[in-house]
Automatic annotation (TrEMBL), chain A:
Residues 14-97 form the STAS domain. It comes from Streptomyces microflavus (Streptomyces lipmanii). InterPro entries: MlaB-like_STAS, STAS_dom, STAS_dom_sf. Pfam families: STAS_2 (PF13466). This is Anti-anti-sigma factor. Coiled coil: none annotated.
From TrEMBL, chain B:
It is found in: Cell membrane. Residues 358-575 form the Histidine kinase domain. This is histidine kinase. It catalyses: ATP + protein L-histidine = ADP + protein N-phospho-L-histidine. InterPro entries: CheY-like_superfamily, GAF-like_dom_sf, HATPase_C_sf, HATPase_dom, His_kinase_dom, HisK_dim/P_dom, HisK_dim/P_sf, PAS. Residues 633-749 form the Response regulatory domain. Signal peptide: none annotated. Keywords: ATP-binding, Kinase, Nucleotide-binding, Phosphoprotein, Transferase, Two-component regulatory system. The lineage of its organism: Bacteria, Bacillati, Actinomycetota, Actinomycetes, Kitasatosporales. One of its GO terms (cellular component) is plasma membrane. It is an enzyme of class 2 (transferase). GO terms for molecular function: ATP binding; phosphorelay sensor kinase activity. Its EC number is 2.7.13.3. The keyword Kinase applies.
Length: 97, 1381
């Protein structure tokens, strides 16, 4: 059984593409994440607010696109992003209140 | 049960009697079918084992078995002991077989049967009826118990060796030894016979009575001694007439040197003494007392022991006794003759002394008459035959010497008698002295010495007696020349302190300081001084001193050894000190000294040019030749050439083979090269004198017997005693007559031959002893042995002497213990000369012997030295019998003490190894497995590690009959029955050590014993195992749910159960029933009650998961179980997910709940009375929640209840113990609590303890697939929620665990997806432990290629407090933990 993950592609009001992930990301479903990322070009905002779990396999997919990503993440994921160094390479902010 | 195993397999030896064809066949013909023991096929294993050991042994053995003590024996016993009772005895009751000695042996057998302890009897006297009469016999035997398969003593085994020969031999030996003891006190024939009689009375066993008769000149015989019988007895008449037909004893036969056997049935033999026995002798042996080369002295009548046959040994003994008495008579008679001769000689000596002292002046006339004509003859025959001249020279010189000696002796006797007629005249001392000195000049020149004469004239005259002064000076000069070999001699005259001083100084050998005080003593001579001649009487200086004293002067000497001697004479001037009667006016004569010639002549003879040529040997015409019957060799030792020539001529003329040497040393060499029949030696010789020569000869065993005849010029008793004491055989004083010398020489040669005859007789006597006999010298070297010695040790007389360490000592390297024992005994021999030891020795062919040796000091009659005389016998059989007994005893002990079969086997192997000091001992059981089971004295050794040839040899052993030892170069093996199959036992001796037949017997006995012991141990093992299985079955569940830990400690060992119990029951709804209970009492009885209650409680819980209702139902149940009343029970039901616990307590101590915050709560609700106290009454129920990471402790009162202490303090202590173990896993915590609460001496009551920590650890195993990650995470998250952790910690743990699992999937099992991965998580109170285990190998970390993997490990380390990754060939373990804050 693949870990449940829903990826929804949208555009932000300013036209920037936005990818919203809901569920958990681990090595069993990183291919789907990679495919969704590869499907876009240019700057991309990824909303991880509703992701409960992100492991190093998922991080490695994000690292591959770090230079064009902006991350939105809740406090649950902050330690992982900070410790891995991804937060330093991307713009990371909390969810809009 | 034990025989079942045996019945499963056919007995390896088809027939129990097959071990011995002959006795086995006769045993088989016993009608066993009607016998109480039944047919052999039905015999128990133990009896069959015993019978096969018995039959296969070559040691004499018998056994008794069963209620009738049925008799069995082997062929050795049949041969040695049973005699004509065979085969009648087989299968009969032992009491019937040995009816005649049953009074002796019956009680011993009873002891063995009733106590199970072995008996040991050494040399027990038994009268056995095996040869048609009650025979005196001695037996050394051990009765040891025989046990049946159940370990009960039902019979006994007797290993016996018959000692009859030894005991009787020793008894006879002792009598012979006593007869020969201390002959020095025996002086006369009567004393000797009385002494013998006393010794013979000491052995009334072999000699119930003895009579000694001596022949009178008329052929009749007179009673000289009676022992064991009154002298007035009709059988002991004082006189026996010639011919003796009508007398009590035959006289004619012994007179002809023949023995006679006399039946004691005549009337005068009634009421004979019985000796040591109940009945009188029936026969007597009459033995002659033989005389060497003559008719018998008499005869010995010996009453005979009717309990022994008159065999060769008995007859020989009586003959040896007679021989002793005969030798005693010979020695007493010879002593008497010698004494008479000695008295005559002493009388002669006294007469001689008187003669010499009174009439020696009479010599002067004949001497003058000889010397006068001799001078004439010399002048007349100056031109004639050189031989005549030579002989005249000899006569002349010796005439002068004799004259000088006679004069000196006369001077002395005059001085002593105060009759010295001195005439003092005033003289020019310097002139007189230098004139006397000049006489010696030529002799001193010839000796190559400087001669200094420094005699300036003195101012005053000195009064001297001229002839006396001559003697003074000539003696001093002669002395100086004799002892000076190079340098100078000086004569100096001076005046000093109003006196004239004359000094004679030499550079000779000097006088030792200790000799100085005796220098002027009469007849004193300095021993061993190097000199030109040893001729001299030792009176020269004494005379000088006497003469000087007569002059009113004094003489003194100074000397340094090796430098020279100086004599100073001080004479007063004038005549005031002299009697005026003796003074005469100066005569003024200056004639040549009157007495100088003998001195100078003698001195010249010492010098090289003065010696004679080779001795010529001629027969002396006119001498009656009284030579020896057979050619005999005589060695002559004399430093005087004339004497040598004279003796040589004399003896050669008498037909002796003569050889002559110059001194003692040369003589010693010549004798050692070839021992002569007689040595004729002068006493005084340079280098080695005659006395020293005798001493040297006597100390060397090779020459100790060479007879020596000493010649000496020293007359008198003292001198001759000195010579004889030194060991000389005879002593002859010069001058002697040629006839006397020849007679003495002949007598000594013949006596020596006679003595050798005695020596041969003595050798034959010693050789006839059954015991080994030896003589040691003071250094411990063995110098004499007999044939028994050679028989026992293998070392013969050809290599004598055997210096220590003797070749039969055990090797110090290979057998240090045995070597030490011998060394100790030998030290005893050297220190005390006496003692008794049993020691191991090595036979010449290498085999081990044990000997019992006894030795005592003795004086060697020839040399007078102390030697050690010893005897020993072969005690090997005794030694091994004792060894067998103690080996069986210690094997039994170790078999009894073992707790189970493997321990019994190991202990037995260790015992065997110790016994034989083996390198190792193996036991291989060929059970049903592929590989035989090996037990060895070396721990850890396996069958595969054994060399292939050893494995093969052990396998081959199985083909051998049971209990039959097999030997090879490295050790010994034997096959025996083990409960699991045949067992090969192997004793590895390592170093080619011999394994004797005694060892084989012992091995076979021990193996039989071991087989029985193992069977018993096996039965006990089985029973214990059954008991353990049963106990464990009633104790509690073998599998506990996660999170629980239990401990159980029964108060009663070796039981593993008691009245306390714990239980957990998995209920159908996922909840867990928990029960801890305590029945009244302890031990097996309480355990059976407990088992029933436990099962009932379990069933009730499964039916209705309510603790209260369960206990109520249990009330009713317990009421019907005896002993169950008042049992206390804690019964609870736990929801492991929520921690909800409902419980009810039947009078049980409260449970303890330790919260993670450090507080402790007692579960004291839901309480009512113990079980069955009020059956039917409703019980209350309570509930509580077990918080996350709290610990629940349930227990029985044995954990907390202590004398003189409230229960609550024990409960508090238990709570503290749980709190103290916050950092421990729950199983470790259980151990800690038990240890912490244990009283000093251990628990004295049953203790049950149950611990639960909430939640239970999480254990998951899942296949290595990435799809598993989400469900694993879900389960982990849910468990973490149960642990009540902060959300941040939960997320950290999830990420770290997720990374570890992903690693395991991706790397550990990248080639084998689907392999299992195990995750375990456990919450302690303040700590959380996690582990992920896979069975694969991780890639070596390569961060540049796997950036995100490196990131994974980084993440784990960041999320957890500690991460360890432990790779191993079997897989990789990731361990992590974090503190719970």
């Amino acid at each position: 059984m693949t870990t449940p993950l829903t990826l929804t592609a949208r555009s932000r009001p300013d036209g920037t593409p936005l990818l919203k992930a809901v569920g958990e990301i681990d090595m069993s479903n990183t291919d789907a994440l990679a495919a969704a990322l590869d499907a876009t070009a240019g700057p991309l905002v990824i909303d991880l607010t509703e992701v409960d779990y992100l492991d190093s396999a998922g991080l490695s997919v994000l690292f591959a696109h770090a230079d064009r990503l902006e991350l939105i993440a809740g406090p649950l994921l902050t330690p992982v992003l900070t410790i891995s160094g991804l937060a330093d390479l991307t713009t990371t902010r909390g969810p809009d209140v | 049960m034990g025989t079942e195993g045996a019945r499963d397999r056919p007995a390896p030896a088809a027939d129990v009697f097959s071990a011995d064809a002959e006795v086995g066949k006769d045993l088989a013909t016993v009608d066993w079918a009607t016998h109480p023991l039944g047919p052999p096929a039905d015999w128990p294993q133990s009896l069959r084992t015993a019978v096969s050991i018995l039959l296969s042994s070559r040691f004499s053995m018998w056994m008794a078995w069963g209620p009738e003590l049925t008799f069995f024996c082997n062929s050795a016993y049949r041969r040695d002991t049973l005699g004509s009772k065979y085969p009648w005895a087989l299968g009969r009751p032992a009491s019937e077989v040995w009816a005649e000695i049953w009074d002796d042996i019956g009680p011993r057998i009873d002891t063995v049967l009733s106590t199970g302890e072995a008996t040991w009897d050494q040399a027990l006297l038994l009268f056995v009826q095996r040869s048609g009469y009650p025979e005196e016999s001695y037996h050394t035997f051990s009765y040891s118990p025989l046990r049946d398969d159940n370990g009960h003593v039902v019979g006994m085994l007797c290993v016996v060796s018959e000692d009859t020969e030894r005991v009787i031999g020793e008894r006879r030996m002792a009598t012979l030894r006593d007869l020969g003891s201390d002959p020095s006190v025996v002086r006369t024939e009567e004393e000797m016979l009385a002494f013998s009689g006393r010794q013979l009375s000491g052995n009334l066993a072999d000699l119930p009575f003895t009579l000694t008769y001596l022949f009178e000149d008329d052929g009749s015989a007179r009673l000289a001694n009676a022992a064991g019988i009154g002298a007035g007895h009709p059988a002991a008449p004082a006189k026996l007439p010639t011919g003796g037909a009508e007398g009590a004893w035959p006289v004619a036969a012994p007179a002809l040197g023949e023995s006679a056997l006399v039946p004691l049935d005549a009337e005068l033999f009634t009421e004979l003494p019985t000796g040591r026995w109940p009945a009188p002798p029936t026969q007597a042996l009459v033995v002659p007392l033989l005389q060497q080369g003559g008719s018998p002295y008499g005869f010995l009548v010996a009453g005979l022991n009717q309990h022994r046959p008159l065999d060769d040994a008995y007859r020989g003994f009586v003959e040896l006794v007679a021989g002793h008495i005969a030798a005693g008579i010979a020695s007493a008679r010879s002593y008497r003759a010698q004494q008479q001769r000695a008295e005559e000689l002493a009388e002669l000596d006294r007469a001689k002394t008187t003669f010499f002292s009174n009439i020696s002046h009479e010599f002067r006339t004949p001497l003058t008459l000889i010397m006068g004509p001799l001078e004439e003859l010399r002048g007349r025959l100056a031109q004639s035959d050189p031989q005549v001249q030579q002989e005249l020279e000899v006569i002349h010189r010796n005439g002068l010497r004799l004259g000088k000696l006679v004069n000196t002796l006369l001077d002395f006797s005059r001085i002593e008698a105060g009759r010295m007629q001195a005439t003092y005249e005033p003289a020019d001392l310097a002139a007189v002295t230098s004139e006397l000195a000049s006489v010696f000049r030529s002799a001193i020149d010839r000796a190559g010495l400087d001669f200094i004469v420094d005699c300036p004239p003195l101012d005053e005259p000195v009064y001297i007696d001229r002839s006396m002064w001559e003697k003074v000076m000539l003696n001093l000069l002669s002395n100086a020349l004799k002892f000076t070999f190079d340098g100078s001699i000086a004569v100096v005259v001076r005046a000093a302190n109003g006196e004239a001083v004359v000094t004679v100084r030499d550079t000779g050998i000097g006088v030792p300081a200790e000799e100085m005080p005796r220098l002027f003593e009469r007849f004193h001579r300095i021993e061993n001084a190097r000199s030109r001649s040893n001729e001299g009487s030792g009176i020269g200086l004494a005379l000088v001193q006497e003469l000087v004293n007569l002059h009113g002067g004094a003489i003194s000497a100074r000397s340094t050894e090796g430098e020279g001697t100086s004599f100073s004479i001080r004479l007063p001037f004038g005549a005031a000190h002299l009697s005026s009667d003796a003074l005469t006016p100066q005569a003024g004569t200056s004639a040549a000294p009157v007495h100088a010639s003998p001195y100078v002549q003698e001195a010249l003879r010492w010098l090289p040019g003065g010696q004679r040529g080779a001795s010529t040997v001629d027969t002396i015409d006119g001498e009656p030749v009284t030579g020896p019957g057979i050619a005999a060799r005589v060695l002559i030792a004399d430093d005087n050439a004339d004497m040598r020539e004279y003796l040589s001529r004399l003896l050669a003329g008498a037909g002796y083979e003569v050889r002559a040497v110059n001194d003692g040393l040369d003589a010693l060499d010549a004798i050692r090269a070839q021992a002569p029949d007689l040595v004729v030696s002068d006493v005084m010789m340079p280098r080695l004198d005659g006395l020293a020569l005798v001493a040297a000869l006597r100390t060397d065993p090779r020459t100790a017997a060479v007879p020596v005849l000493l010649l000496s010029a020293r007359a008198g008793q003292e001198a001759s005693i000195e010579g004889l004491q030194a060991g000389a055989d005879d002593y002859l004083v010069k001058p002697f007559a040629a006839a006397e010398l020849l007679a003495r020489v002949r007598a000594n040669v013949e006596l020596a031959r006679l003595r050798n005859h005695h020596a041969r007789w003595r050798t034959a006597l010693v050789d006839s002893l059954q015991e080994a006999f030896f003589v040691c010298d003071q250094d411990g070297a063995v110098i004499e042995i007999n044939t028994a010695f050679t028989d026992i040790l293998g070392y013969g007389p050809e290599n004598l002497p055997y210096p220590s360490m003797h070749p039969w000592w055990p090797d110090a390297d290979t057998d240090p213990e045995a070597h030490r024992q011998v060394a100790d005994a030998f030290a005893g021999l050297l220190d005390q000369n006496k003692g008794s030891y049993t020691i191991p020795v090595t036979h010449r062919d290498g085999h081990r012997l044990w000997i019992s040796a006894t030795f005592n000091p003795a004086q060697d009659p020839d040399s007078g030295r102390t030697v050690t005389v010893g005897t020993f016998r072969d005690a090997t059989a005794d030694h091994y019998a004792i060894q067998r007994d103690s080996a069986l005893a210690s094997l039994s002990t170790c078999l009894t003490q073992a707790e189970d079969l493997p321990q019994a086997l190991s202990a037995a192997l260790a015992e065997l190894k110790e016994l034989w000091r083996a390198t190792s001992v193996l036991a291989v059981v060929f059970d049903r497995g592929d590989t035989p089971t090996l037990t060895a004295t070396e721990p850890g050794l396996t069958w595969q590690q054994l060399p292939a040839e050893r494995r093969q040899a052990l396998t081959d052993l199985c083909e051998r009959p049971l209990l039959a030892p097999t030997l090879d170069s490295a050790g010994a093996g034997i096959i025996l029955e083990h409960p699991d199959g045949p067992m090969a036992l192997w004793v590895d001796l390592g170093d080619q050590r011999p394994f004797s037949s005694e060892d084989q017997l012992l091995l076979s006995l021990l193996a039989g014993h071991l087989a029985q012991g193992l069977t018993r141990a096996h039965q006990i093992d089985q029973q214990r195992e059954i008991a353990l299985v049963l106990q464990r079955a009633i104790l509690g569940p073998s599998q506990l749910p996660e999170g629980f830990a239990v401990r159980y400690e029964p108060a009663t060992r070796p039981l593993e159960v008691g009245g306390d119990w714990y239980d957990t029951v998995s209920l159908p709804d996922g909840r867990i029933g928990i029960v801890v209970g305590d029945c009244v009492g302890r031990g097996l009885e309480a355990a059976t009650v407990m088992g029933q209650l436990r099962s009932a409680c379990r069933a009730l819980l499964l039916q209705d998961a309510s603790p209260a209702r369960t206990l109520m139902a249990l009330d009713h149940f317990a009421a019907g179980v005896p002993g169950a009343m008042c049992t206390t029970v804690f019964c609870g039901v736990l929801n492991p997910d929520t921690g909800r616990l409902t419980y009810s307590s039947a009078g049980h101590p409260p449970g303890i709940l330790a919260h993670p915050d450090g507080t402790t709560v007692l579960l004291d609700g839901g309480r009512y009375a113990p079980l069955a106290v009020r059956p039917g009454t409703a019980r209350p129920e309570a509930a509580c929640d077990v918080p996350a990471r709290a610990t629940l402790l349930l227990y029985t009162d044995g954990l907390v209840e202590r004398r003189r202490r409230p229960l609550t303090s024990g409960i508090d202590q238990a709570g503290e113990a749980v709190q103290a173990g916050r950092d421990s896993a729950v199983d470790d915590l259980a151990t800690q609590v038990m240890e912490r609460l244990a009283p000093a001496g251990g628990y004295d009551d049953d203790v049950a303890l149950l611990l639960y920590r909430h939640p239970a650890p999480l254990e998951m195993t899942f296949p290595a697939e990435s799809e598993q990650l989400a469900p694993v995470r879900k389960a982990l998250r849910s468990w973490l929620d149960q642990c009540d952790l902060p959300p941040r910690t939960v997320q950290n743990v999830l990420v770290a665990a997720g990374e570890a699992c992903a690693n395991a999937i991706e790397h550990g099992h990248r080639h084998n997806p689907g392999e299992p991965i195990r995750l375990r998580a456990e919450a302690l109170v303040d700590d959380l432990h996690l582990s992920v285990v896979d069975s694969g190998n991780w890639k070596p970390p390569q961060p540049e290629l796997n950036a995100h993997r490196g990131r994974g490990v980084t993440l784990m380390r960041a999320m957890m407090q500690q991460v360890t990754i432990t790779p191993s060939p079997a897989g990789t373990t990731v361990g992590m933990h974090t503190r719970i804050v």
